[in-house]
Amino acid sequence: MKKSVSKLLAVAVMLISTMAFALTGCGKATSTTDWVNQKEIQAMVKTMSDSQSDMSIALVAVDDKTVSFQFTFADQLDIPDEDTKAMIVEAFDQQIAAQESVFTEMRDQLVKDTKIDDVVLRIEYLNADGSEIYSKDFTN
């Protein structure tokens, strides 16, 4: 299971990296909702999501200060016990840590575009049933 989770995670991190580069200077907005709902941003998210068969991708404004990338696996991951969950979280932590600068830069771009100094960029991985597998917030 670790191999398939790691592969899916690597694809998701690569997609975020690509999107972060594409979103640089995408546009100004007065709120997280306005930023997320920009046509260019939604078109990029849709294109990336449509290119994946293993997961769907959404970008949502959770609240006035939080934007979340939500990666939802198409197939339910079997997480039968806490040891398995810990193994999955460790794999996510390693992949996310390797790309931390990408997420920090994207969060900084959000601050610049929205003028919200304490905006949060959240990366969430959800199981097919919508339950959270992993979440990490990037703050200032």
Could you explain the architecture of this structure?
The protein is of the alpha+beta class and 140 residues long. The chain has one domain (2-138). The chain has helices spanning 2-23, 32-36, 39-50, 82-98, 100-114; strands at residues 55-63, 66-73, 120-126, 132-138. It has a 4-stranded mixed β-sheet with strand order 1-2-3-4. Strand 3 and strand 4 form a beta hairpin. Helix 1 (2-23) packs antiparallel against helix 3 and helix 1 (2-23) runs parallel beside helix 5 (100-114). The relative contact order is 0.19.
Characterize the main sheet: 4 strands, mixed
Counting DSSP E segments of at least 2 residues, the number of strands comes to: 4
Instruction: Report how far the terminal alpha carbons are from each other.
Output: 34 Å
Q: Rough shape?
A: globular
Strand order of the largest sheet: 1-2-3-4
Mean of residue pLDDT values = 84
Give the helix proportion (percent range): 40-55%
Low-confidence parts: none
Judged by helices, strands and strand pairing, the structural class is alpha+beta
User: What number of structural domains do the residues give?
Assistant: 1
Tally of alpha and pi helices: 5
Radius of gyration over C-alpha positions, nearest whole angstrom: 15 Å
Percent strand: 15-25%
- The H/E string reads HHHEEHHEE
SSE blueprint and pairings:
Elements: H1 2-23, H2 32-36, H3 39-50, E1 55-63, E2 66-73, H4 82-98, H5 100-114, E3 120-126, E4 132-138
Parallel strand pairs: 2-3
Antiparallel strand pairs: 1-2, 3-4
Helix pairs in contact: 1-3, 1-4, 1-5
